[in-house]
């Protein structure tokens, strides 16, 4: 039997993940009282049980200590029960935004500030996050992208290192993305903006792509960039990094940066056990 414990930050996507697991055939239970966890696991793991895949949602709540749930899980492991932990996370600012949009109260700060509740919860969950088998940061994930990650782990059973890489094109005139971990400037390449036929197009169009990639410097840049990123990935994973945003910028964020971001994405896609997505921040600016 495959047993998954789904936990994480409130607002991080735990219930969405449970729903997706349910859609793939998992028997899912959420908000089970802590004293019943052990009985639940023993029941579904008993000989003759028809359940071969189960997921348990585990929340931090004000009315029951999370430490007790962790102790029960440790006791189950010591008794020979195997399980995996999926931790759903998001950045502080994203969690704060989600709470404001939903107008919900934080379970650890029902009468206080949401920010205080988020900080308390992160402190409580620090230990279980460090021991999780999978950590998915949903800060920049669309629902379909989260589903792809869930399927990759629990349906296709692919190796997973919990690192989500975002390749982000942007224009310097609109500012450097605040969440970028690595920023690369491709304004050293000739600008298609000054060619009448290419000016209204973007790096998503073949004409612009052919023009930008016709310069040997573009190919050399991509080779060196890909080599460096592949060197960095295992080292970031080793240090416990879960989110990597690679910013590629040109003047307006429509031609050169979009072309090179697309090319880098194609070269890295399906080449590793990390999550990969691409986003063009400024491609629609001024249109």
Structure overview:
The protein has 287 residues and is of the alpha/beta class. It is 40% helix and 18% strand. It folds into two domains: 153 residues, Rossmann fold; 116 residues, no CATH class. The strands form two sheets. The protein has a five-stranded parallel sheet with strand order 2-3-1-4-5, sandwiched between helices. Strands 7-8-6-9 form a four-stranded parallel sheet, with helices on one face. α1 crosses α6, α4 crosses α5 and α8 crosses α9. The longest helix is centred in the last third of the chain and has 23 residues. The radius of gyration is 22 Å and the shape is elongated. The protein starts with a strand and ends in a 7-residue tail after the last strand. The model has no long low-confidence stretch (mean pLDDT 90).
Write the layout of secondary structure elements.
Layout: E1 2-8, H1 14-23, E2 27-30, H2 37-44, E3 53-57, H3 66-78, E4 84-89, H4 92-102, H5 114-130, E5 134-137, H6 143-154, E6 164-171, E7 182-185, H7 206-213, H8 216-238, E8 243-250, H9 256-268, E9 275-280
Pick out its properties.
single chain, 287 residues, alpha/beta, Rossmann fold, 2 domains, 5-stranded parallel sheet, 4-stranded parallel sheet, 9 helices, 40% helix
Proportion in β-strands: 15-25%
The fourth-level CATH homologous superfamily of the largest domain is P-loop containing nucleotide triphosphate hydrolases
Number of DSSP E strands:
9
- CATH topology title of the largest domain: Rossmann fold
Could you say how many structural domains there are in total? 2
Choose one word for the global shape. elongated
- Please name the CATH architecture of the largest domain: 3-Layer(aba) Sandwich
- Helix coverage percent: 40-55%
Give the count of helical stretches: 9
Query: What's the quaternary structure here?
Result: single chain
Placed side by side, the strands forming the largest sheet appear as 2-3-1-4-5
Name of the CATH class of the largest domain: Alpha Beta
CA distance, first residue to last residue: 53 Å
Class of secondary structure makeup: alpha/beta
Q: Which sheet architecture does the biggest sheet show?
A: 5 strands, parallel
